[in-house]
Amino acid sequence: MNLGRLQWNIQWPLCCMTCHSRANCLLLLVLPLIFLLTSCNTLSSSPDAQKPIKIGIIAPFTGPLAASGESTWRGMLLAADEINAKGGVLGRPIEILMRNVGDDSAAGEQAATELAAEGVLAILGGIYDTVILDYLDELHAHNILYVNTWATIPTILKNGYDPNLTFCLAAADKDVMLLIAEFTVETLHAQKPAILVEDSAWGDSALTGLGDMLAQFGVTAPLVQRFAVGEPDIVNEVDRLRQAGADALIMVARSDEAAAIVRSTEALGWKVPVVGHPTSKAGNFTERAGVTAINGVYILQPKALFEYSNPAQTALIEAYRTRFGAADPQATANWEGVARGYDGVQLLALGIEQAQSADALAVVQALEGLKTKYRGILKEYSAPFTRESRNAFTPSDYTMAQWQQGKLILAPLPNAPGQ
């Protein structure tokens, strides 16, 4: 603005005819303009524009399933590092907050309350189904998104909330049971499969689902044994199934109990195919069972983990080595957890970017209609969520893997009977 030119166009009132009065009047005219320009600049650089977008994780970092929480958290940190190095999301950095919660619903609710007070946009993680279900009320009361990375019970997603703030990056139990039943009967050619399943709400749901799926493949009365959660010695249950003539063993167990099961088969000298639920390896399964005992055990895994040419996975491996010092990150039994945490944060960032907002409900709507394709670690995500479908994974995203010398490889197909 040229104030000199403006002066000639001003019709000065009589009270401002002196030079001194004119100067005062001019100041009165200019000061509001200066205030307006300063206010606009202040608004454009408001404190919220610089505040971090906080994402939490509620998961076990101690106890038998600590590795599931640790691996997911590390993946989240690596995603935040990458996003922040590029300037953040909407110019704001990502900050990861963690809470250590094991199989304790009261602690889970307290952690959710604390993270809500911290102003988190979303929470990832969790493997104890009942703990997650008990703090969903708290999350929905505070409009906090939840991205499930390990638990498989269906009621986490089918929770009755509207709007539903939950999403999932873990295989649904019904899909897991279908794939396990199909592999056991059609590929392993088992005619008398047995099921070892924990005595819990999750075990009840899994047993019903697995029984239904086995029936689709002609097995109507599988052998069943239950065991208590945390039971260190399951040899008697395993031996009953051996004596009953089971020709395949399906274990629906978390890592400690799964380790006890395969140690029992080894101690009994029972050479039987063992097929594990994906959560069997969520903790320190390899260390607790021993490399010899787990050799040959089958377990469902995301196909993409075996796509070694994936540039996103190659970059993540290198970033993991740099930050955490692991020589061979994929050798860990919980690389899947790293991938889930990493992909979860990246998908949230895409939702925030599309919504052009860190408002939870706006991000939910963006995720339900995500336009950007994202080549992640666990899969290529193309419109992964809708209002009706909250799980990004389908049976086609999984394959059967097998432990060989302490590492997971794509499962070789066994010979048919008589070959």
Nutshell version of this structure?
This protein has 419 residues and is of the alpha/beta class.
Strand tally is 14
How can the largest sheet be summarized?
7 strands, mixed
Helix content: 40-55%
Domain module count:
2
Beta-strand fraction estimate: 15-25%
CATH architectural arrangement of the largest domain: 3-Layer(aba) Sandwich
Give the overall form: globular
Unreliable runs: 1-45
Structural class per helix/strand content?
Answer: alpha/beta
Q: What's the CATH class label of the largest domain?
A: Alpha Beta
Indicate the multimeric state: single chain
Molecular structure report:
- The chain is an alpha/beta fold.
- The protein folds into 2 domains: 53-171 and 326-395, Rossmann fold (3-Layer(aba) Sandwich); 174-302 and 400-410, Rossmann fold, CATH 3.40.50.
- It is 46% helix and 15% strand.
- It contains 15 helices and 14 strands.
- It has helices at 3-9, 19-44, 47-50, 66-85, 105-118, 129-141, 173-187, 201-216, 235-243, 255-268, 285-289, 291-294, 311-324, 335-355, 360-368; strands spanning 53-59, 94-100, 122-124, 145-148, 166-168, 193-198, 223-227, 248-252, 274-276, 298-302, 374-375, 380-381, 398-404, 407-410.
- The strands form 3 sheets. The protein has a 7-stranded mixed sheet, with helices on both faces. Strands 2-1-3-4-5 form a 5-stranded parallel sheet, with helices on both faces.
- A hairpin with a 2-residue loop joins strand 13 (398-404) and strand 14.
- Residues 1-45 have low confidence and may be disordered.
